[in-house]
Write a structure and sequence with these properties.
The complex is a heterodimer of chains A (290) and B (262). Chain A has 290 residues and is mostly helical. Chain A has twelve helices and no strands. In chain A, helix 4 packs across helix 12 and helix 6 packs across helix 8. Chain B folds into two domains: 137 residues, P-loop containing nucleotide triphosphate hydrolases (Rossmann fold, 3-Layer(aba) Sandwich); 73 residues, no CATH class. Chain B has ten helices and ten strands. Classes of the chains: A mainly alpha (290), B alpha/beta (262). Chains A and B meet through helix 9 and helix 10 of A and helix 2, strand 6, helix 4 and helix 6 of B. The complex binds adenosine-5'-triphosphate (ATP) and magnesium ion. Magnesium ion binds next to helix 1 of chain B. Chain A: It is a multi-pass membrane protein.
């Protein structure tokens, strides 16, 4: 198919009389550098994956047995869940601890990010300051949250403090980008009008910039809250930050209780669904008013 | 009448070789309605923006209310800006806020930073806003969001915002260029009314020569950064129009001829 089109493309290029008008549809499909790079990468990855599977050493593994075992485990996990080492109410409490961690870090992160976001927005700040902050936050963003938590754990010790600082840190970098981009979208005119009327920077920010960006800010912040919830679960396990994640860690690594893992998974799942539903409702409402 | 605004030998240069204004010289009396006309790129917007220092003039003096605007410190500049309202071609409202909130923005410059940040306005200020919105025929729309208004309505909100500053002068940069003739007439009538009945000086950039002739006390013609006409609309001749707009102004000359004849 594609090769064919390439052929016609080539022939029409050499013989201008065959096709008097350049065909725009074909032109947009023509090979360019980025397409070549992308396809080569994909092809390479496919080849590597296939090669890896073929070349694995399967001697010791009985495929049928392994597959059946996994299926049984999954069945036990999700069809026969129970709570043994703590009660239902305790589990609910732990879920709220995790939610609290997510909420706190999003709140701290959001507040700091508003200030930095204003300074990072090119239309509200100087170019130098803007570039500096943007560079800094993109560096912070490039390192995963978990790593930041572990880095702060060096000073604060593994636990909730390191988790709060590390997660806040990454939330700030994420939200600064989101906020400053929505600030930059605000048209220059409204800012100029208020400048011309003698208003000062803070008044312009709170009377024009933030009201105009509020819906974007809320939906980005909520998205980060969802991310932070997932991270908080993981941090409970990886950094001993407590909450439902820590219970899951105990159930799997300490009690080896597969049924309890199933129960906890349900808890997390239900909460994730609730957040999703709430988020969708929020977005709808913002759209109506926004 | 004493001059409220004096523009003395003002020049403005952008970058190395764009001379937007060359030795511009004129004065405006309190309460006067002055139109500035000229071809695109002549420097009309630059001139208006130099007056309230949205753009810094390269040389010269701009005396407003006996103070040289070009010498002012940041704080003094803010105070003087509250006395000069500005009206824009694209209205420049905050779209997500209501009509009255946008209008009240005119008060920000006179408020403490904190009250302005929190958007706290006194009853008096709100009543004043209502009075002005009412005078501009916006009484029924005060809680409507700015982006739900028509262009003409938006421009009236823009004028209300400028008037709430209690300005001595309005700078209007092509206030009717994006409007249909009907809405444009409404806006021009309001501006004329503000000038005659409220005694506010008005400086307006216009593209339409016929509109300028009809409403102004005085016309300033600019070509290529220089004032080439400064006088009463009655004395504006075909030759003057040719001087302002250059040789490609045949259609305009025809229009002006028609207006003077009628
Ligand atoms: N910020 C700027 N930087 C560089 N050059 C500018 C800037 N603003 C205006 N100019 C230049 O100054 C000259 C005058 O522009 P100005 O916008 O004042 O013209 P104008 O008379 O308002 O035109 P129009 O009728 O199209 O609005 C133009 O040559 C323009 O390119
Ligand atoms: Mg202009």
């Amino acid at each position: 198919m594609e090769a064919n089109e390439q052929m016609t493309n080539v022939s029409s290029a050499t013989d201008p009389f065959l096709k008097p008008y350049p065909d725009k549809r074909l032109k947009s499909r023509a090979w360019n550098k980025s397409l070549v790079v992308m396809r080569t990468t994909l092809l390479l990855l496919t080849v590597l994956t296939v090669y890896a599977f073929v070349s694995f050493d399967y001697k010791e593994v009985d495929f049928k047995e392994a597959a059946l075992g996994t299926l049984t485990n999954i069945k036990v996990m999700f069809l026969e869940p129970h709570l043994k080492h703590f009660t239902f109410l305790q589990a609910v409490h732990q879920v709220f601890v995790t939610l609290g961690l997510a909420f706190l870090t999003t709140l701290f992160g959001g507040l700091i990010a508003v200030l930095l976001g204003l300074l990072a927005a090119e239309n509200l700040s100087s170019r130098r300051v803007s570039l500096l902050i943007k560079g800094l936050v993109s560096f912070i963003r490039a390192v995963p949250t978990v790593l930041w938590v572990l880095i702060f754990a060096v000073a604060a010790g593994l636990g909730s403090v390191a988790a709060v600082i590390g997660m806040t840190f990454h939330s700030v970098s994420y939200l600064v980008k989101a906020y400053s981009e929505s600030f930059e979208e605000l048209d220059r005119g409204a800012i100029e009008a208020l400048q011309a009327s003698g208003a000062n920077w803070w008044q312009i920010v709170f009377q024009a910039v933030i009201p105009s960006s509020l819906t974007y800010m809320i939906s980005w912040t909520f998205l980060r809250f969802e991310i932070n919830f997932a991270v908080a679960v993981a941090m409970g396990a990886a950094a001993g930050a407590g909450g439902i994640g820590f219970d899951m860690f105990m159930a799997s690594n300490f009690y080896l209780d597969i049924r309890e893992i199933g129960a906890i998974t349900y808890f997390i799942l239900i909460l994730a669904i609730l957040l999703e539903v709430f988020g969708a409702g929020l977005k709808k409402k913002l759209k109506v008013n926004g | 009448m004493a001059a409220l605004l004096e523009v003395n030998h003002v020049s403005k240069q952008f970058g190395k070789d764009t001379k937007a204004l060359k030795d511009v010289h004129f004065s405006v009396a309190e309460g006067e309605f002055v139109s500035i006309i000229g071809p695109s790129g002549a420097g009309k917007s630059t001139l208006l923006r130099c007056i309230n220092r949205m753009v810094d003039a390269t040389s010269g003096e701009i005396i407003f209310d006996n103070r040289n605007v070009l010498d002012l410190k940041k704080k003094e500049l803010k105070t003087i800006r509250t006395k000069i309202g500005m009206v824009f071609q694209h209205y420049n409202l905050v779209n997500r806020l209501s009509v009255i909130e946008n209008a009240l923005h005119g008060k920000l410059g006179n408020k403490s930073a904190l009250a302005g940040v929190l958007g706290l306005y006194s009853i008096d200020e709100k009543e004043e806003a209502m009075k002005i919105l009412n005078a501009l025929g916006l009484a029924d729309l005060i809680y409507k969001r700015a982006d739900q208004l028509s262009g003409g309505q938006k421009q009236r909100v823009g004028i209300a915002r400028a008037l709430l500053q209690n300005p001595r002068m309005l700078l209007c940069d092509e206030p009717i260029a994006s409007l249909d003739p009907g809405s444009a007439k409404v806006i021009m009538d309001h501006l004329k009314n503000i000038s005659t009945n409220w005694g506010i000086t008005i400086l307006v950039n216009l593209h339409q020569v016929d509109v300028a002739l009809k409403y102004s006390d005085r016309i300033i013609g600019i070509n290529n950064g220089q004032v080439v006409y400064n006088g009463s609309p009655k004395n504006l001749t075909k030759d003057d129009i040719q001087l302002i707009y250059g040789s490609e102004a045949e259609d305009l000359i025809f229009d002006v001829g028609g207006i003077h004849a009628s």
